[in-house]
Every structure is written in structure tokens, then in C-alpha cells.
Amino acid sequence: MYQDNEDDCKFAACTYFAKNHPGEMCGSNGLPLTPSSITILGRAQRLLTIEHPNLCTYLDVIRGKHERIIVVAEVIGKSLKECTSKFSFQEIVNIAKQVAISMKFLHDQNITHRTLSDDNILIDNEGRVKLFNYGLYYMTDGGSEVSFPLGLPRYLSPETILSGGGPAADVWSYGIILLELSIGKLWNNLKPGPILRRILTLVHANNPAERIAREHDCFEQYKQVPENLRNIIEKCLKIYPSERATFSELVEDLTKIVSKELVEVKTPRGLMGCKLQYLYHLWQLAGGDIQAELKKNYLIKNSPPILSMPIAILLDGCTIGGKTGALFDRRLAKYSLDLLKSRLSHVPPQDFYPLMHERRKEYDAVALPKIIRERDTEYQFYRLLWFHRLLHGYPYTAPYIRAEAEIDIPPLVRGDVWAALLGVVGDIEDQYERIDKETPTPTDRQIDVDIPRCHQYCWLLCGSAGHKTLKRLLKAWLLTNPQYVYWQGLDSLTAPFLYLNFCNEARAFACLSAFVPKFLHKFFLKDNSAVIKEYLAKFWQMTAFHEPELATHLHEINFVPELFAIPWFLTMFSHVFPLHKIVHLWDALLVEGPALPLFMGVGILRQLRDTLLSSGFNECILLFSDLPEIDIGECVKESIEMCRSSPRSVSYRRFTNEAVVKDPMDIVEIPMEVLFTEISPRINLSDFFSLICQDKCCVIDIRSNLLYEKSCIDGSINVPYSGVHLGQHELRALGLHPQKVIQEAIKQKKMVVVASAEDETAQLFSDYLVKCCVPRVCILHGGISALLTHVPSLFTVPPKRNGHK
Amino acid sequence: MTGETVQNITKTFKYSFPTCTNEEIHFNLEVPVDIPHAGSTRELVQRVINMFHVPVYLEEELNEKLAQFVAEETKNFHNERDRKLLNQLKNSEINVEGIIKNWEKLFKDNVMEFAEQKGTSDEEVFAAAYHKLVHSPALETILQVENSYAKTVMNTLKSRDEDIEKLTQKQTEEMEEKVRMLNISSTEEEINELAAQQFEQQALVAGRWGSQLDALRQTQRAQHRAWLMDTLQEYQSTSALNTPSNSPLATFSPESVSLPAPVAAGGARLEESFTIHLGSQLKQTHNIRIVAMDLLDLCAVEQVDNPAESSRRLQTALSLYSGELAGCVVLGEAPPRRPAPPTTRLLAAADLSTEHHFPSMDAQLRDISERLLEPVERRNSQRLQADGAGGAGSRGRSRRDLQTGDIFITKHSNLAEVHVVFHLMVDDSSLRSGDITSRHPAILGLRNILKAACSNDITSLAIPLLLRHEMSEEMTAAWCVRRAELVLKCVKGFMLEAAGWGGADLRTLTAALPANIAPALFAPLAALTPNIFRVSNPVKFKAPNKTDSL
Asked: Between chains, do B78 and A315 touch, taking CB under 8 Å as contact?
């Protein structure tokens, strides 16, 4: 069943079923009760973050079908139970010390072990000791979320048997284990009942350790045990918990006894030197299957469901007949990394230690869609190593991280990378600690209503741990941003950060605090109507800019963005998409900056283009009431393309926290009322200038031909406004030459800039162009006169046309 | 120990510090703290500092002091509780035996190491064997064998019916003769005697046929099992098997396996299917089928030789021991021990062939009614107590009977399309009336059924949409729409709820309307679905190069 070479097994899994709620499934708040497995999953997240040299790191907690929980954790060597040879007293003291150190660590973290036993203390050939699955009591909330009893009878302390027992019960179990190591297995071959009875009778003994030894006819043997070890055992096996030693005392005592220090083991190089979490992740990508091994070892049994069908269900939910609870099997399934090793066997050793300033090789996989890249073992291997190195150097490596994040972000380190992209630095724990998240406030009610509706399909967020943390985050944010109020949607906005930093509340908070000013400046004001109106107006302009035909259609049926796009932008799409799509969306958002969301909105519309074009107002409303499936990968790609190809000033908004623009060359700000009437965006002089220099724009001068002939922008064409029939939506109507020039510009994806003497005509003419389905139309801010003042060098006298009309 | 609840207590944390100006005068701080403390003490310190304007230079000290205080008090809290328990034990104030018995039971019932070792049951062995063979080349043979068995049973049933009919006819003639001759050559006594005789004859014939059928079924079942196990052995030993060589088909007359003549299915039924999405952000996909049909059509296998029928059977056989079961809901008023229509129709359907896997439906019903006796009686008496004196709520049903909304469940291997039948107890008179609410017991029963489906791997389920099997006169168009809307909306809620339970997804929900519904009424009912559920948009194929259009 197990691999012969013990070093090959790096981690192991055990599985059990959470308790089923009997009968009615509604709690006091009228909402369905949280399934126990969800509660366990939420509690277990904290265990995943614990790292200690004497504790087996938890790697994963999986929720299976029908309330199954699978716990994956590191393993080493073998358990004390499997060790058949007897330990010398020196070895026992050595084990005792390491166990005491790890137990002290756990108790300091307020984690009670409760299930300490000889089969979850692992020891390797060097005498290194680690505790395995020490969090069972913690994750099951003191055993209340499972139906089986925790622990083994012979290690239960008297008070635990009487339904009491705090952390001090662990000291008793520890004492029993030391005693067993010294004099041999206790109460062998006895059933639980008699064992428990014997433990309870120990309360009448003065020295339980001696009494146990006598009971086993090992008193002589017990006397042979060195006195200092015996003292320790007796200090642990006191009947009253208050008299027992604590683990910190035990560590002190043992440090005095242990003479031999453990040999330092060099961390292995190459694959085995990687972080265990990475190895586990990559192993899964390489095709490792936790459940398959469990099935092979009969830890997951597949009894056909029809055989365990209940015979009746009464109205109150009481089920008669059917499944009997599955037995709790303490065995483990161990996994070797051979699969991963062979998958990565061809990786040269130097690749495990990438150098930051070395030009790195390109991978073929980059061309593939993100979702596929995220499943590619080798690609992820290289990306993880690289990001690991970059994150190690944060904040000094921030620009590198940004550059790499532009390509993609490995899912395993997404939380860290996002924090880096948002510039989260400093002692965030301390800052977060200082915020009062407990005192009730008037918004609590609304928050309590919203949280049970926020991304509840996610198993982390739908548990009580998720609810509690989300509430704390929201309260903390509101308290630190007194200028803002709670708008519905803030919960959805917080959810992705909580999801990625489930056990790091402070970082989730820091990310949220950095995210809002960057992307949603002033959105959460009590009166945010101006901000939202401007945002939507800009979104509408961007739609006209990139999708003129669609924009014209939506304008015609009067389907305005106020009807559907407010939740998109207020929550940066986190209210409309599931988390696995939001992360990809935000990956791009965090890299590209605050202009991108506008284009993402356009990207979504573009995907629905065909449907929208053939729909009337009512159909559109219906369509957006529940957004159809959107290909996020495609949407992100196109929106980035649109964003990068649009001049910056085109998407200018006044309500950002960027510095106020002073230079007249850079100004594009117009009064809000004007903004709402303009369909095409404005471009500022400096963007215009650089477009001209790169020959990326087609300028249409709509002044009268008299003015044009006097002086005009070099390369512009003249379409006198007075001669345009605004009712005729065909480019042909402009005349042959302008039509040809504009069509050429469209083909070459040039900007079409309307330059005029007055704003009004420019506005009307740009509307006209949009209606003619000309993309990338914008208005030169300030018109010809401003340009003439600031960049007179662009002007020239047009060649006289030879009168052919 | 599992029922352990930690009773929190409140302790007061006291702290005093001198005022800035006068060393003599102290500020005294008293903070009530819950022990064991759930949150972080450092956060509590921050709150205290803010609330009482404690000078910040005391922060470190306060952090340390409070952490110490909480640690100490928590330890005391546990120790004090445990000390009391242990003292009680010492003074024999505790029922030690009870506690130990309880632990013993917990360990024995729940933990593998301490549980009684029990091997795999015959049922499971047979299930595994069947499942394996059905997914092997032997499948076709198995189905053929089962078909021929079913055919034999059906033939026997047919002969029985003919026999009884003949007898009845003969008896009627005899009786008519006698009656005609009344007062001529026969007396009233003679007629009575004849009637008694005839009745006896009938009973005798029925009994004879009954035992013959029973015997036939038992033989078939035994044969079937033995053959299957043999086949499996052969399969495993040769691991290459095309047609089982020892097929019992050899013993059947060749005409019984001859290719059946294709029979056209009955008139096309009204049917419409939808693919729907549920959930606001993450969407789960389900199929909903609105069909006008008799739910029992899903059960009965009428013609064994019909290819359409056998493909239905094939599907059912393949998934019998899988995690993709099919179920249907049948409404009824009768308790399991006194079946009445529609349960009797189901019984007849189940009797058409031998039940090779589970006890016969008869036996299942008997078993259910026996095992339900005690829990139902307990529940009903609890309910009566809760209702107080006004016990009229039980509406004439006996104390021991199932009530509206209760469900009993039978399982079958020989029905056409379903493995599991949920018998939902309803009260016909209340379902006839138009105004039932979402809190009606029948609806709550549906919720329990959906929940059971989720936790027992039933992935397709058929329900009577109007909660009625037949049309009746009070079921006007408005009535039907209202009822269908209520049921669909409730089902939607239950399906959303079921998503969180972590069981099997309900892939297909068939909502059956009475078979005799008017087509004009069917259309508006089918049209309800896209209004209540979000129907998925069809995926449109777009040519990849068409991006910019002008």
C-alpha cells in the first residue's frame, strides 16, 4: 500500500464526514443552516497558514460530495505507532522535547490538540519529530461539527471523559505517550469501555503514573526510567489540570535534560527544496489526484447510492432508514511526488534558481489562453519560481512584478501579487489592529442583510468564518473612510480580496483601502450621482468611440447605461461575475490602471453585439437583468487593446485622485452638462500633437472653406459644416474625396479628429460621423484656435485645388 | 463530548495608571472581558484606548497585561470547571457507568477501529457484480436475458388473466342458467351455494396462479443471480468475453429472442425542454422538461420487444448502481399497507417482470409500513400534543398513519425509466382548491424530496407540476397557471438551496402535466418556465474573422 522508500511520500490525506444537520435546515435568522462541512472548511483555513518546524504543514482542505472533508498535509518518516523498535531514554527525551515545543506553539496560538496520540506523532530517521493533523479538534469546532468522538480512548484525560477538558488535557495525553514510550503500550487489547473506566479510577490514586505502571506489572521497569524523565511524566499525569505542568514549563525542563542537539539537515536542492505548497499545487497540475489514492486505499468507499436509499421522510425532515453514518477511518493515504518528479525531470538544475536580471527564455505557452496556462505544470513551475523570487524582493522589485503580472499571475500567489500591484507596504497588521471593528454602527443592519447574499456559491465566503471576516472588513473600511458611506456593492467589491487573503484580514483590508481610491475615487460618497453620471457618460463615449454602430442603435432605442452599467462600475464587475472570472478581470485591471474598466464595459457590449443590435429596449432590459455568459479572456484581451489604442485624454475623467492638470496642452475638462450632450470624446492638444507626429490621425476641418484656405492643419481635409446634410447618414454624402480619406483612415485604424472653430458644430458633426458608423471619432479640445495658439507649427496654407468638384 | 457547549463567563479586567499631573491620583479602568475570549486581545486594547482616551504610552503595557489576564483567566476557567467535574467523580456524584456507556457507543458506532467488523453485504457484492457486467460486453446478453424473463412473466400473467376470464365467463353462464331456471328447477339456496362455490373456485384459481407466479419469480431471481455471478467469474478469469457462453438464453425457445418488430410509439405527446441557469453570479445549469404525460408511463414497461422500450431499459440498467439515479414523484392518499391508485397501478407495473435486485414492491411496502409504525406514531402524538386539544387537524386519519407531506420511498430495478419512486402523501381535497401557499405540506414535501434527491445522487427527477395526476373540472386555465407558477417558483428556490448542500446536482427536472391536458392549456404553462427561470441563451457560432463590420 505504501511506498517502500519513505522519503518519497511527501504528503498524506485523511478523510471524514462532517455531521449532518438533523431535520429542518433553517436557522434562527430564517436562512438555511450552514452545512457543517462549510464551517469546517472555513475554520481550517487558519491551519493552512501555520508553519512550524515540528508541525506537519497543512496543504489543503477539500470539501467533497455529501459533506466529505479531505485533509491533506505534509508527512515525514513514520509514526511512533509504526516504530517497532524500542526507543532509548535519550531518544524518548528528544522526542518529548520536540513534541513539547510544538505543543507550546499550538497552545500559544490558542489551538487545543485533543487528539494527540502515537499515530500522529511522526519521526524520521534523523530523529526529527512532527505532529500530524493536530488541527482536527480546532477545525471541527471542538468536535461539534462531526459525529464521531475525537481522540483515542487511552489518551483521554479524566476530565475529557467527563465532557470537560481544556488545553491542559493535552498535557495528560502527552504524559501518557511518554509513559508508553518508557514502559510499553498501555491497556493493550482492551476495549474503549474498560480503558475509560480505568482512567477514571485513577482519580483516586496519588500518583497515577505509578499506578498505571503497577496495573501493567511494569513497576520495576518504571523505576528504571531515569528520574528526570519520570518527573516529567508525573508532572503531566496529575489528576487536577491546575496541577499539571504547562508545555512552556515542560520545554524548559526538557531543554535542561536534552544534551544532544539535532544535526542540521541541509535543505535539499532542486525540486525538493521548493516550498511544499508549490509542490502540492504542481503535483495536482501534473495530474495528481487526491481522491484516487483514497479510493485505492478504501478510504473512500463507493457504495451504490440506491442501496442506501431511505424508506421514508416525514414532513419535518426526519429521515427513516437509509444511510448509516460512515465510520471514521483514521488511516492515511500517502502520496509520492514521483509523478511530478518525472514530469519535471528534464528541467536543468540552474532553472531552479532563476536570476532576476538575466534575460529569461520565452515559453511557448504564453500564446495560449490564460485558463490553459494556469493548468500547465511546467509553465506554472517556471512562473511560480520566478514570482516567488520577485515577491521576495518586494517592494524593491515592484516594477518587475508589474511587468510580469502583465503576462499573467500564477493563481497560487495571486493574493501576494495583487497586494504588490496595489502597493501594499508597511506594518498592515498593526494598522488594521487599531481599527475598531466591533462597536455596532447604524450600517450594521444593512451589512448583515447583504453579506448572506454576497458570492455565496463560494464555499469560503458562505461559511460563518467568511461572513464574520467580511463584516469586519466592511466595518473597518467604513470607519477609516468617514467621508464615504456604505453603498450596496461594497460587499461584492471586498469579496475578491477576502477570497484571496482569507487568513490575512489585514492584507485584504490594505488591498481594499488601496483599490478604492485608485479605481473608485468618490464612488462611495453619500451623493455620488455626479461621479457616477460622469463615469457612465465617459463609458458611453467610449462605446461610441469603439463601437459606433452599436452605440447608435442603443441611442436610438434609448437604452442608456444608467439602466445596466451602474453595478458594473460601482463594484468593478465584482457583482456581475463569479469570482473565478473576477480574478482574471482584475488581474488586468490592476496592471492597466483606472482607465481600463471603461473599455471592459465596451468589451462586454462588444461580445453581446449581435444580440443587442437585433434587440429592442425590452429585450435589452431582459438581457442585462441576467448577464449571459461572457468570455472573460476575450473580453480582457480586447479591452486592453482598446485601452492602449485610445489616447489617454479620450478617457479623461475629472473625479480621479490623480493630480489636477494645469498645462493648457493637457486640458480636456469640459463642464458636466456639455459632457452629457457629447457623444464623442475630446482629445487634448498634446495627444493630438503626438498622433499627428506618428501619422495616426485623420483631421477633418469643418470650418468654412474660406478660413480653411487661409491656414489649416497640415494634412487635414476640409468638410465645411454648412454643406453637410445631417439627416443623411452616409459618408458618400460628404463628397468623394472626404469619403475616400475617411474610409482609408478607418482601414488604417486612425483616429478621426474633428477640428472646428465652435464646439457646437464639432459636436454635431462628430455625432453625424458616429451615426455613419465611423469608429474612433473624437473632437479636438479647444478647436482650431487653441491649436493655433499653442502649436502654430502644425499649420500651413493648403495647396490651391484646381477647381474640380 | 460532542454536545459540549462552552459556557462563557465574564471577568472584569482591572487596570490603573497614574494621572500625568499627580502621581498619587490613579485612573482606574475596569473592562468586562468574555472568557474564553474569542477575538484578539490587542484589538480590544485599541478599543479601550480609544474609548477611554488612555494615553498611548500605556499601549504596550496594556497589551501585555490584558493578554496575560485573558490567558490566566481562560486557564482558570477550564481548570475550575474540570476541578468541579473531577471532584464530583471523586465523590461519586456522577453516573460513571452512563458516561462510559455513552463513550463506548460513540466509539463503536463511529470509529472504524472500534466498530464491529462486518464484511460487504450480499447486496453490495451483487451490486458490484452487476454494475461491472452491465458495463462490459455482456450487457446485451444481460438485457436479453432479463427481457426473456420478463416475457415469461408477462406470458404467465396473460395466461392467468385468460384463465380467470374463461372461468368467470363459464361461471356467469352457469349462474345465468341457474337464475333463469329459478323457481323452475333450482332454488334460491342452490343459487347461493353456487355463488359460494364459484367464489371459491375463483379464489383457488387466483391462488394457484399467484403461487405459480411467485415460484416463477423466485426461480428467475435465483437463476439470474447465479448466472450473473458465474458470468462475472468467467469474465474475470478470461478478462475477454464477448458473449457469455453459459447464457441461459439457450434454454429459451428461439422465437423469444427473435428480433422484435418495430412498434411505433403512441401519439406524440406535448413536450417542451429548456436549459436554465440558476444563481446570480456563478450559474448552475439544469434542464427542465415540461411534458404532458402520465407519470406512470415512466415506470411501466409495456412491450418488452419494442426497441425504444429496450433502450429506455438499457439506460436504467446502466445507471442502476451508479451515482446518477432517476426518480419520480407519485402523489397518493393511501398508506403503504393499503395501496390504492395510483400506487396500485405502480404495483401492477412493477409486477410485470421479476424484481431481480430489490425485494418485490409488495414486500417493500409491507416493510415500510412496519418500520414506519413507531416513528410516525411518536411524531403524530407529539403533533397532537403541540396542537393542544384541537386535534381535528389530523382530518380523520388515524394516529398511526402518514400525514400530508410525508413521503415513503420504494426502489426498483425493473421499471422503464426510474429507479426510485417517492410516494408523496397528499390530501386531495386541499390540493383541489386553488389557493395553496408555499407553506403547504405538499410543497414542503417536495422540498424534502429535492433534498433527498440531492443527498442520494438522484440526478433526474419527475414531478407532477400541478400536484394532480388527472385533470378535473375545477382545474381551469387560471387555476393551472397559478398552481404551476407556485410549484415552479418553489422548486426554483429549493434547487438554489440544494446547491449549497454539496450533494448531487439535479440535472434534469421533468415537470409532468396531466396526460389529458388540452394543448391550448399546455402552451401557457410551458411558457411560464422562461419567465420564472433564466433560460440560457443559445450559443451562436460566429465566424472568427468577422470582427470589424462596416
From this structure: no
As for the ipTM of the complex, it is 0.85
Q: How confident is the model at residue B257 (pLDDT cuts 50, 70, 90)?
A: very low
Identify the pLDDT of residue B305: 66
* A108 plus A29 within the same structural domain: no
* Residues 104-143 (B) with a CB less than 8 A from some CB of A: 104, 106-115, 123-124, 127, 131
Q: Which of A513, A313, A507, A522 is nearest to A429 (CA)?
A: A507
Q: Looking at residue A450, what is its pLDDT?
A: 92
Q: Is the pLDDT of residue A277 over 70?
A: yes
Mutual orientation of helices A276-285 and A377-392 as an angle, nearest 10°?
Answer: 160
pLDDT at B499 over 50: yes
Q: Structural domain of residue A238, as residue ranges?
A: 84-121+146-257
Whether residues A779 and A693 share a domain: the answer is yes
Q: Which of A66, A161, A309 has the CB atom closest to B409's CB atom?
A: A309
Q: Is A141 within 8 Å of chain B by CB?
A: no
Residue A201 has pLDDT above 80, yes or no: yes
**In one letter, which amino acid is B132?**
K
If residue B305 lies in a helix (H) or strand (E), which one and from where to where?
none
Q: Which three cell numbers stand for residue B139?
A: 450487457
Name the residue ranges covered by the structural domains of chain B: 9-114, 123-253, 271-385+401-535
Percent of chain A with pLDDT over 90: 59
Classify domain B271-385+401-535 by CATH architecture. 3-Layer(aba) Sandwich (3.40)
**A489 and chain B: CB distance < 8 Å anywhere?**
no
A407 touches chain B (CB under 8 A): no
Task: Return the CATH number at A212.
Answer: 1.10.510.10
The model's pLDDT over A721-778, given as tens digits with 9 standing for 90+, comes to 888 888 888 888 888 889 999 999 999 999 999 999 888 899 999 999 999 999 999 9
Distance (Å) from the alpha carbon of B124 to chain A's nearest alpha carbon = 7
Q: Name the β-bridge partners of B277.
A: B285, B534
User: Can you read off the three cell numbers belonging to residue B217?
Assistant: 419469480
Q: What is the pLDDT of residues B31-49, one digit of tens each?
A: 888 888 888 889 999 998 8
Distance, CA of B408 to chain centre: 8
Q: Supply the pTM of this predicted model.
A: 0.89
The answer to whether B138 touches B245, Cβ cutoff 8 Å, is no
The shortest CB-CB distance from A327 to any of B47, B110, B131 is to B110
**Binary contact (B47, A328; C-beta < 8 A):** no
Which A residues, 731 through 750, put their C-beta within 8 Å of a C-beta on chain B? 746
Q: Hunting for cell 462549510 — which residue is that?
A: A38
Query: Is A115 part of the contact surface with chain B (CB cutoff 8 Å)?
Result: no
Instruction: Tell whether A82 is within 8 A of chain B (Cβ).
Output: no
